[in-house]
Design goal:
Elements (H helix, E strand, L loop, with lengths): L4 E6 L5 E9 L4 E8 H45 L7 H9 L6 H28 L10 H13 L4 E8 L2 H8 L1 H18 L4 E7 L2 E6 L4 H17 L10 E8 L6 H17 L5 E7 L2 E4 L1
Parallel strand pairs: 7-8
Antiparallel strand pairs: 1-2, 2-3, 4-6, 4-7, 5-6, 8-9
Helix pairs in contact: 1-3, 2-3, 5-6, 6-7
């Protein structure tokens, strides 16, 4: 149409080119300029390739650093979330203490969980202690006795069992009142604790009945301990007009298969034998290699 213009056309060679067209009015020349698209875009493509070559590693490094920071920050939180609170509380505390983090929020959460777990551990210990302790005397109770005997039998160890009962305790309550009777029980518990060796465990069975489990002992040691305990009670001032005495059944069970419940019954029978013989005395039963020796 004789007007200047530009565009993209396909040359006779089939190659796509950028074309420009104009005229020279003075001499009626027509000028056409054609440049292959590939050559025209080559500098831009080269620049793009260089930019990508330089920029991609930087982008990749920045991305990896970002991922690393995210993992660094969230790892303690993930480990805290994966704590198994069904485990024993001591294991939870140990694992929580090992989850240190420089990230303040994670550290605050860790400290909160640790504080809660430690408080729970203290409460659990208190409850466990209450469950195995006689509230009046502070001695172990029957539950603790059963736990210890089970452990001794699991280890196939021998042990001594000393069972004692306050003589005529009902008359003390009837004559002086239950408050005075409780004072006698508490003082007797302290006396039993003071004479029991470190390898022994004093226990309040119930009422006016007490027991001592003796480990690392022998029949002779049990006789000597029982007589010493009986004499100590007899010589103690309980702030009453009448003298306080105890009858004792003492037993020794060797590390054999003899049934513990039968052994308890044997010792109990010896206690009542001491009562029948006039009280304030010791009667014994020893089970050694399956043979029973009764005083």
């Amino acid at each position: 149409k004789g007007r200047p213009g530009k565009g993209t056309i396909v040359a006779q060679t089939g190659e796509q080119v950028f074309a420009g067209y104009t005229t020279v009015p003075q001499n009626d020349w027509r000028i056409i300029s054609m440049t292959p698209v590939s050559k025209a875009l080559a500098p831009a493509q080269l620049t793009a390739i260089k930019a990508a070559t330089i920029g991609f590693p930087l982008i990749l490094i920045s991305f990896l650093v970002l991922i690393g920071l995210i993992i660094f920050i969230t790892k303690p939180l993930n480990r805290l979330s994966l704590l198994d609170y069904k485990k024993p509380i001591g294991e939870v505390i140990q694992e929580t203490r090992g989850l240190n983090s420089p990230y303040r929020e994670a550290e605050n959460i860790r400290a909160m969980i640790l504080s809660f777990a430690e408080n729970q551990q203290v409460m659990l210990r208190d409850f466990e202690e209450m469950a195995v302790t006689d509230p009046m005397t502070g001695l172990a109770n029957r539950r603790r006795l059963n736990q210890l005997i089970q452990m001794i039998r699991d280890n196939e160890e021998s042990f001594g069992y000393v069972l004692l009962d306050i003589d005529r305790f009902k008359s003390i309550n009837d004559t002086y009142g239950h408050v005075k009777g409780d004072q006698v029980l508490i003082k007797l518990a302290k006396l039993i604790s003071s004479v029991t060796p470190h390898s022994g465990l004093p226990i309040r069975i119930g009422g006016e009945e007490f027991a001592i489990i003796l480990q690392e002992t022998s029949p002779d040691d049990i006789i000597a301990f029982s007589e010493h305990l009986r004499h100590s009670v007899e010589q103690t001032d309980f702030s009453l007009p009448q003298r306080i005495t105890v009858s004792i059944g003492a037993g020794y069970l060797g590390s054999d298969s003899y049934d513990v419940s039968h052994f308890y019954n044997d010792v109990d029978q010896q206690l009542y034998k001491a009562k029948r013989k006039g009280r304030n005395c010791v009667e014994t039963v020893f089970i050694i290699e399956g043979k029973k020796y009764i005083s």
